[in-house]
Predict the structure.
Amino acid sequence: MTILTKKNIIDLLPHREPMLLIDELYDIKKLHSATAVVNVKKDSFFVQGHFPDQPVMPGVLIVESFGQAAAALTADGLDRATYEDKLVFLMGVEKARFRNPVIPDCKLILKIEAIRSHGRVWKYKGEAFVNDKKMADAIWSATIVDKK
């Protein structure tokens, strides 16, 4: 089984700390699906202000984590020349539901799937879990664009 570590993900994505949210990608089915890990820590950058006495991972960062996992899945499955000097931009979020708050010191597990692709536009769906409890789900689209 192929596992992409944080170091491998850094080689695929332009994101850097503190905005690189995914820590690992595994159970990869090339250009189809994968599972990602986000280690939500008590010292994560958002905890200090969201909310200091009862920290919660913001829903927009869960959606961002979905997007990063999908971008890593796609970049890993494509020929390097296809995504070299390119960026993946979120185009739209059709549906996002936040079912339970994600509280720091947990492992957020993202199960993502590419639904379809048309040229440089991809559509994905994902579900987020903590200890097998569904925390969120979303459907979103992204596009691959030139860095310039």
Notes: The two ends are 35 Å apart (CA to CA). The chain has one domain: 6-146. Strands lie at 24-29, 33-40, 86-98, 106-118, 121-130, 133-146.
